[in-house]
Structure formats: C-alpha cells, structure tokens
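Here we describe the complex-level prediction in full. Unlike the single-chain runs in Section 2.1, the two entities below were treated as one system.
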Amino acid sequence: MHILDYMKDHFLILDGGMGTLLQESGLKPGELPERMNLSAPEVIKNIHKAYYDAGSNVVLTNTFGANPLKFDDEELDKIIAASIENARAAAKESLSSSEKFVALDIGPLGKLLKPYGDLEFEDAVSFYAKIVKTGAKYNPDLIFIETMNDSYDTKAALLAAKENSDLPVFVSNAYGSDGKLMTGATPAAMVAMLEGMHADAIGANCSLGPKQLMGVMEEYLEYASVPVLIKPNAGLPRSVDGKTVYDVLPEEFAGDIEELLKKGVRITGGCCGTRPEYIKAVVEKIWTMNPVPLVRKGRSVVSSYTHAVEFGHSPILIGERINPTGKKLFKEALRNNDIDYILGEGLKQQDAGVQLLDVNVGLPEIDEEKMLITVVKELQAVSDLPLQLDTTDYKAMESALRCYNGKAMVNSVNGKVEVMEHVFPLVKKYGGFVVALTLDENGIPEDADTRVKIAKRIIEKAKEYGIDKKDLIFDPLAMTISADTKAALSTLEAVYRINTELKANTSLGVSNVSFGLPERSLVTSVFFGNALEKGLSAAIMNPYSQEMMSVYYAFRALHDMDANCTDYIDYASKLPAKQEVKAQKPDAATISSGSAAEGLSPLKEAVVRGLKDKAGLITKELLASTEPLTIVQEEIIPALNIVGKGFEEKRMFLPQLLMAAEASKASFEEIKLAMAGKGSEGPKRMSFIIATVHGDIHDIGKNIVKLILENYGFDVHDLGKDVPPEVIVDKAIEIHAPVVGLSALMTTTVPAMEETIKQLRKKAPWVKVVVGGAVLTQEYADQIGADKYCKDAMDTVRYAEEVEKSL
Amino acid sequence: MIDLAELLKSDNFTPFYAEYGSPAINRGEILRYSGIPAYDLKQYSKDTDISLISALKERCERCATKCDYTVSLSTDHKCPELSEAAAVNELLDETLNLCINGFTYRLMYCYVNLSDLDKTPLYNTFIDSKNLSKNLENCRGVILFAATVGSNIDMLIRRFERTKPATALMLQAIGAERVESLCDIFNDEVTVLAKALSINTHPRFSPGYGDLDISVQAPILNMLNAEKRLGITLSNSFLMAPSKSVTAIIGLE
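The structure predicted for the assembly as a whole is:
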C-alpha cells in the first residue's frame, strides 16, 4: 500500500530514539553512527525490528548525519544503500501485522546558512540533492526531513527532496522552549512555507517532551491543512546512579500523545530517550481511536523567516517605497549598486509600521534578476518582514522565490493566459501568495462587472495548477480620478463584489487614484478609507504619509480590530503635535546660547554628542541660510575632528565615535537632499576600496572603518565580506582606486589577504594597501607585504588623508 | 539544577541540558566590551561592576563645576566632561530595551573522567595543549559545556549594523556580556556544588585560549549534542553560530 493512501484513514506510528540505543550497543563518542549501517548491520536491523515489533509503521533509516559534508560520494552511497537494506530486512523479519514503511532520514547539514553562517543556500540545496538522489535509487517509501532548527535550511532540504524525487516528504522541525526555531521561526511561519512547497506532512520532533510541545502542536493544527506529526523526546535526561534516565516514562508519554492525537495530530513517534516500550505504550493506548478528519483551513498567509502574516482580518499595509518609479535617488542607488540605500528604505518603512515590503528593483539598464536576488537576500538579512516580490521578469521572479526564506507574496499575475502560464507553475513549486490584477488581453475594464469576471477566470485557471483561492489576492486596479471621475467608484464596487461574491482577498495600489491632482495624500487617504470600508484586505501604500497611517489606525479602532484602541492611542501619542514642533526651535536656540560658552556651535555640539535627530534638524535650519559645502567644511568636519582627536587621545571611545558618526550622517543626509534638489553634487574625496578578505565573514570592524571614512567624505566602495582577490583587483582597476583596505579577523584568512596583496601588486601596482583586523599586527602586515597597518578607524582616516595629499 | 554527585558517576559522557533565567546585567562589562577600557571605568569607580550612572555621579561630585548630577545625566546637560558619557549611558539603556527580552539562556554539559579521555575524540588536542594541561594539573576530570544566548541578538545586530552602527556595537557588547554571565552562573553553581564534595574547580578554559586551537570546538560540540539541542553550528573557520555562544572546560580537582 502507498503510504499516502494508508495515512488517509489511519494514524501513522513512527519509530522512537536511535542514538541512546546505538551508544548502548557500543558506539563511542565522536564516532559517526551512520557507519554502523556497514560495520554492524545486525545491530541496526535489530533496533529497527524492535520498533516494528512494538507497532511502528515507519522506521527512519540510520542516516541522520549521512551527508556530503561528512562522507565522500562512495561511502555516502554505501551507507545509504545499507541503511535502507537494514530497515527493509527488519520489516521482513518482524512478525508484527502492521503496515510497514521505510523512511529515508535526513537531518540538518550541521552548517548554518548565510547570512548568519557561511553556507550558500544553493550549496545546501545541492548537498541535500545528493542525499535524495542517492536515497531514491534504493526505493524508500518516503523522505523524512527532521530536527531542522532553521527555516532556510529546511527550505533547502525540502526543495532538494521535491526536485530530485517523487517520494512523499515529511518535514519536522525542532522547537525551543520559547516555541520557536533556533533562528526565530514560529510554527505558523513554518506551516505557511512548508505547505506552500507541498510537504506531505509537517510537525515537530526532538528538543522537548510532549507536554512542552503542546503549544507548538496547537499552532500547527490551527494553520495546517496537511497531516501534522509529532516525535518528541522522553522529556529531559538526568543521571541516576550513573545511569542516564529520561524524566517522562512510557505510560505518561503515551497519555500525552493520546491527548495530542485527540486534538488532531495524525502521525506520531518518539525522539531522544524514547525506546520500543514507549512506542508499544502509545500503540496500546490509541488502538481504538480514530484520527480526527483533516480540514482545509483556507487561511491566507505569507511568511518571513520569523513569522506569518495573515490576510483577511485586520488590513495589511504593504510598503511601496522600494520601487524606482518616479524616484530619482532610488534610481541612482540602483545604478550605483547602493544596496544600503535600498535596505534603508526597507527599514524606514518597517519603523513606520508596514507589515510587508514590496520589492521592485526593475530598471531597463540594470540586470534585474541579479539585483532582485541581491536585494531579497540582503533585505531578509536585516528585516524580518515578509516580502512582496514585484517583477514582470519571470526569471527574476523564479530566482527570487527560490532564495526567499519563507512564503513570499508575488506581484503579480493578471487575466492574460500567457502571464498565468508563466507565474502559476512558479507559485506551485515554491509556494506563494499571488496578487492577481483584474485586467486581461483587452486591457483594464472600466466597469466592476468585467473585473469580477476576470477574477473568476483567474480563480479557475489557478485551480488547474492546484493553487487555491486562499493563495490569491485580487487587485481590481485603482485608476486616477483626474482622468475619469467614475474610476474610483468602479474600483470600490469591484473590491466589494470580490470580497462578498467571490469571498476572496483584495489589495490596491491606492496612490494611483490621485495621480495628477494637487495635495494627493488627501484624496488617496479618503479613498483608502472607503476601500477599507468595502472590505479591502491590503494596500500597497506610502507609510510615510501621515494621512494614510491615520486612516489605517482610525479604521482599525472603529472596526473592533484594535483591543482597547491600544494601537491607535500609541500611534496618536507619537504624532508630532504642532506645539512640539514649535518647541524644537527655542530648544535649538538654547543649545546655541548654552554652548557659546564652550565655543561649540549647535551643530558641532550635536555631532560631538552623537545627537542624531538634533544634528539633522539643525542642519535643515542652517541650509536655509548657509551653503551646503560651508556646513560640511566649517561645522561637520571640525566636529568630527574633535571626536576623532578625543578617540586618539583615549578620552572618547568607540561608542562615542560611532554615535558621532551617526549624527553626522543624519546631517549629511539633509545636505545630500538639498544638493540633489539643486542638481549639484559636491566634490568627492579620494576613492577607497574596502573589503573583508576571502574566507572571512566577519565585517564588524570593516563596517566601522567604512562608516568613519565616509564621514570624512571619502568615496568608499564597500565590496562586502568573503571577497575573492580577483573581485578586489578588478574593482581597483575599474575605478583606479589609490587605496585598498583589507580586513581579516581570523588567522586562517590572513593567507587570503596575502594573496590579494600579491595580485594587486601584479595587476594594479599603483594601489596602496592598508590592512587591519583582530589578528593583524605591524609585523604581520610587513610579512604579507602591506603598505600600512592601521589599528583602528581613525588611524585609517589619517592614512587615507596622507595618501590623498601625496596624489 | 545540577546534581554534581550524579554527574560524576554518569556513564558514556552523557550530555545534559540546563536552562536559566536572565542573569543580572553587568553594565560595567557591557561598556568594557563596547570599547571603553577597564581603566577608564575604574576612573569612575574602583568597582567595574558599578553602573555608569553611579560612576557618573561620583565623577560629577569630584568635578570643579559642582553641578547637580541628576541634571548632568540628561543629554541636555552642558558639562563637557560628562555629556558624551551620558549619551553612551542612554544608548545602553535604549539598546537593552531593544534586545533584553530576546535572549534564551541554554547550555549542555557533560562530565569526562580524565582517565577516560582516551576514549574521546578530544584526547590528542587536549594532551598537545600545554596551556590546557597546565590548567588541568592535578585534575581528576573535567566538565565540558556549550552555552548560548540564542540567535535573536545576531539578527538584531544584522539589522542595525547598516543603519545604526552605535546601536549595533552596543548589541555586540550586550550579547557578549549575556553569554559570559550565563557561563558564570553555571560555573558558580558547579563551584559551589564541588566545594560541598571537597572538590576544587579550576578557572574555566575555552578553545582559543593560549595554544588550545578553536578547531577542538567541533568534537566538543559533537559530544555535547549541541547542534541538535542548542542549534550551535560551526563555520568553516570554526566560529560558532549563534555568535554569542561559548564552549568551555572546567577542571575538577
């Protein structure tokens, strides 16, 4: 019988722990247990058999750590072949009458993925792919991915399983006592991602006893439409008379499992500390019970690597600002590959209160696919908000969906058959929540009726791909009322009808409605309020607009979506009251009079003290009467010098240096805005390339040096961390950089630094190389042929000034 | 929480799990990790453990301007000596608010009788290290442990290092102080329990000290089942993730 058929109306009983039993059979600490498949097949077979005898339907092969990082191809093949053979032999020998299956067990690779670790996502996928391909040759009944404690790693393993076999795949994660994965994901987030990618069963194993996992399981059951599994530990181990015992005994364990099965869990077994007698106790306890029927939950959910966001209840705000359309500075950032600017836009919107970020980086003159991958990876390294991938380039869409850590929102499909045929297969493979525009080959319909008809067609087409209505959100298109004053009414009607007749979610890019009108945010925000009243589930909007945010918070308070109006009150308390704005000015004046005694101007003082907001505010005021460059030369640079000198003389320390840097950055941002308005650019100082060398992923020090150099006006080109020598050399040649700064934290990566210097000497002999980092010393620097060793950021600034003078 | 007498009898180097509540915050240590050298903290006060506020108070009282120190702690205070330091203090408070609830305090530990050391994959590395051998002189066994305060702090650092580097620096410092404080709690508990059994504990020793190479973290984490139970993994250059994690050895004499 196929396991998926068996599962339809039976509980599925898995096996229990393997590790403890192996140790008792002579496994030594540090020895790889997977080798026992070959060296002691009888032992392994007997453990499997004991579980089948106890009533397990499924045993997991002894391959938890059988991966290409630990074994070469030949040994890996042998181990996996033997492990499946051992399990099959046990099934044959067991006299139990239960249906028996063999699962190819896959544990985590033991390496954390980037950005927190050093393993590339695609490398992880290919390692898992090797295990899956090898295993599939020997015909297990299913693949069991388990004890995964990171969402990204889980995605890599499931993707590899789906791409390289047709076997059913179960996915089980290890949750901590806080109810989250080690890297932060909640059960709801994991359910969204794993169901989206069509895992056949999902759940939790290891880490805790069944009682402690109760909350995690309840969350799974609340969100999941696929069967849910649990394979907990026998509680915690302790030592009694020199013997290790677990604090949950078989009878108690079985009782807890019974309770979980009554709640709706359908697949169960045990992990660390459980033995055949635990499985036997479970089987005896539940033999008269029937599984709770599966229910399609129909919840519309997207997820990031930490949490899920659900549509259809409180309206969802999607920040629209990561988009070059009509934004000069953003276009410039895209052309200059200025990722920091784009990340800044993301974080600012997060601070402003959006729940998702739309990401659109399409510009005709750049490689959109490459840019979208970079931005998605970088954004999910700094922000935990789910992303809406906004592109018309299908290749870019697929690549972004692939590397996205969670279940993304996809922007967009529409009623055109050709578009659906491109986008839906991607959503089917990677999961996703899709924005569907109600337009088709005939363009955007003027009336609501045709828009609703198109929406119906899209639902039908999606069904062909197995994509449920719950994973669609319709955008009935806001058009400007300056061209057609009936436009808004049609859109609002369409929102209402899609919401009530089709029972589907809706979203709007609300800003379009006011295009061509003065004081746009007035019109847009009222339209937003109207649409919310018609049942709008989400809006792609500008969170910096106070009118929009006010409508959002007021609407939620008025519609019983904000208990005790807490969010509204919090929002209102942070509104810049008019009196306060006035109060700011005398405040600035006080500073100036007060500081006169100390001889520091207000701006200098704000920078020296690291007062970011004040520095920005004072700069803005000064710009009304003073030339931008005068402010830089007479205020900011002298202030930075005070801090720099204080730092060098050890009167001020690193936190103060950085705070001053942040304050001056706020100042510079105002100046940049003013200059962009005038269409002029200030003179730039010498360019300076900076990078953490190949093999090293530590960039704290490098980032500090970069920040301080930028503060002093140097044109810093940051190549990031783990940068191969060739990349540094190419950049040095491309911009003819006078100086390259290299950073390394580890002794093991100093050779990479030496190699980079060697290549620079050969191909860019004019370059001065300055090195720094925890392991570097003057002696080391001399040894590897650097021009200069700098002990800290200020030291580097001084050296850069020296080189600049000599040019 | 730990049953030391039982631990000393445990078989097969079985690893055990422990979880603690939030240890008391040591502001002096955080400031030291953030780059304010200990000698300067001592200038405020002899006790590095004292909070910066009281250190500032003392300094204010010594100051010639004789201003009210409660005013001097606000960033609007004009005292040139103090204003920057007060700003650091505020930054520390803000940053603590941001991260303090995101920590978990977990560790795995096991006992290794030194007469059984040759049965472990640690044997060669331990014997080859002169510094460790000296540290373990006269010891009958060691407690190995791996501790972590979780990965939430790493995510916050990621988030802020691009936009608010001073905050990121404080987060680094707080994370370092948190995991060290976790180690201290565990270590102190072991020391007290050992004393009751008339056993002396030696100062804890970590891979990376002296000549003990950090690559030995691989077998230590493996023996402690730390990847599975704590989610601690190693990079190719043997650094741990979550970054605020520690492996250490406590000698028992």
